[in-house]
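User: Hi! I have a protein structure encoded as tokens and I'd like to know what sequence might fold into it. I'm fairly new to this, so please keep things simple.
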């Protein structure tokens, strides 16, 4: 489930992309802190769920709410 959330649910290759990102994160983080790599991946998952995958690459939009496609 974590791999699909990271890769994206609505994308055909989301599972593959999520598996690659997860493995790269696991290797990188475990080389820095071998005992706590699961904590940092869990924290990343929480931020990913709260912020959103599309907004994760645009941090300046974190404080704003979307209009839901409506113009006001």
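Assistant: Happy to help. Inverse folding works backwards from shape to sequence: for each of the 72 positions I chose a residue that suits the local structure. Here it is:
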């Amino acid at each position: 489930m974590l791999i699909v959330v990271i890769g994206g649910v609505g994308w055909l290759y989301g599972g593959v992309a999520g598996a690659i990102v997860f493995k790269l994160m696991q290797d990188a983080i475990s080389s820095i802190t071998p005992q706590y790599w699961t904590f940092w991946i869990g924290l990343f998952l929480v931020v990913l769920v709260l912020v959103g995958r599309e907004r994760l690459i645009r941090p300046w939009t974190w404080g704003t709410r979307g209009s839901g496609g409506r113009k006001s």
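A useful reference point when you look it over: The CA atoms of residues 2 and 51 lie 16 Å apart. Feel free to ask if any position seems puzzling.
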